Amino acid sequence: MILAPSILSADFSRLADEISFVVQAGATWIHVDVMDGVFVPNITIGPVVVRSVRRATDAYLDCHLMIVQPEHFIDDFVKAGANGITIHAEATRHLHRTLAMIRERGLKAGVSLNPSTSLDAITYCLDEIDLLLIMSVDPGFGGQAFIDAVLQKIEQAKALTQDRGILLQVDGGVTRENLPGLLQRGVDVIVAGSSVFDGKDPAMRVREMLETTPGDIG
Ligand code: DX5
Ligand code: ZN
Predict the structure, then answer these.
(1) In this structure, is residue 39 part of a structural domain?
(2) Which domain covers residue 96, as residue numbers?
(3) Which residues form ligand 1's pocket by a CB distance below 6 Å?
(4) How many structural domains does the chain have?
(5) What is the atom index within ligand 1 of the atom nearest the CA of 42?
(6) What is the CATH number of the domain that holds 6?
(7) Is residue 214 part of a domain?
(8) How far is it, in rounded angstroms, from Cα 52 to Cα 63?
(9) Whose CA is nearest to atom 1 of ligand 1?
(10) Residue with the nearest Cα to atom 6 of ligand 1?
(11) Catalytic residue among 11, 33, 62, 198
């Protein structure tokens, strides 16, 4: 399992420290939530902050773009030092073209689906995808509750991705309690925001999550 702590719930006044705590504890990816106030009802950060984060860590920078028309900003995130860019199927008219654009620049291309979006949205671009992100909350905020109805979609997504070398990622409301169920369903990359950064000791939270096995009782 790859753990990708989401810096959305970190203390931005000490961002480099927060990142180094979780990376030293074993997190190999850092999840960066980019919101535009249009696709989602919140505004967060953009390429400028990604560039600073890039200077602070060698970890894989997993940029989750919750913005409309992401095709206009791919190059900005590439230049800023992203390793992977995930776009929402609901946010672009040309999903296939935008995924190809990300790959042409040498990054991993991800597609994210809102809780209400069917897997059908990606049927015809599976060959262009390196990562499939199943949202388990409506995107926009950290600290929301996991939507259980999404578990069935995660199972179907695993069947779709496992023989194609596509990483399956889940984002939203992940806790130590529901993590074993996600591991049982074969999720490859776990995003965790508030469950890592909302406590006193993010490093300990990372270690606990990385030690969790599918057999642990949730
Ligand atoms: C939600 C973001 C998530 C968020 C997760 O729109 O995409 O990455 O930071 O936060 P938690 O883990 O607190 O639900
Ligand atoms: Zn996210």
Answers:
(1) yes
(2) 2-190
(3) 6, 8-9, 31, 33, 64, 137, 139-144, 171-174, 191-195
(4) 1
(5) 6
(6) 3.20.20.70
(7) no
(8) 14
(9) 139
(10) 139
(11) 33
Residue 62 annotated as catalytic:
no
pTM: 0.98
Q: How far is the CA of 96 from the centre of ligand 1 (A)?
A: 25
Can you tell me the distance from the alpha carbon of 77 to that of 40, in angstroms, rounded to the nearest whole number? 19
Q: Is 138 a catalytic residue?
A: no
Classify residue 199: in a domain, yes or no: no
The 10s digit of each residue's pLDDT in 91-137 is 999 999 999 999 999 999 999 999 999 999 999 999 999 999 999 99
3-class secondary structure, 56: helix
Reduced to 3 DSSP states, what percent helix, strand and coil does the chain have, rounded to the nearest 5?
A: 40, 20, 35
Tell me the backbone φ, ψ of residue 58, rounded to 5 degrees.
-95, 0
pLDDT in tens, 183-196: 999 999 999 999 99
- 34 domain-assigned: yes
